[in-house]
Amino acid sequence: MDGTLINTEPVWAETTFELSEKLGRRLTPEERKKTEGASFAESLRICARWADYELAPGEEDTLREWMYARMAEKLAHGIELTPGIRPLLSLLEATGVPMFVTTNTERSLADRCIDAIGREFFTDSITGDEVAAPKPAPDMYVEAARRVGADPAACLVAEDSFTGMTAAARAGCRVLGLAHEVPRGVYQFDPARFVGATVSDVSAWFAAAARPLG
Question: Which Pfam family, giving just one, matches this sequence (predicted)?
Answer without folding.
Answer: Hydrolase
